[in-house]
Model the fold of this input.
Amino acid sequence: MITAPRGLSSVVLAAVKDVDYAIRVRESGGYVAVVALHAGGIEPLTGELAEAIAGSDHNLYLFCGLRETDNAALRISPLRAQEMRLDNLIRRSK
Done:
């Protein structure tokens, strides 16, 4: 059976903040946003790579899986990743 890609809101409603997942946002005031929607245990090292690329000059948004196991259940579709802080970073980016 093929399932539809999940959006951020449906994942967040089925999980516990700071137990299952964390959202980290750093605003530098720059015009570039580096986004990692599968950070932490979802796709190991994705968040660290995004942080290295962003440095201190670029905005950063991370959706991090914090679970010991089954972080794959937190995977979201990038096309359905609507969240106010992320939307604001993207809107201000060039």
User: Anything to note?
Assistant: The CA atoms of residues 42 and 73 lie 8 Å apart.
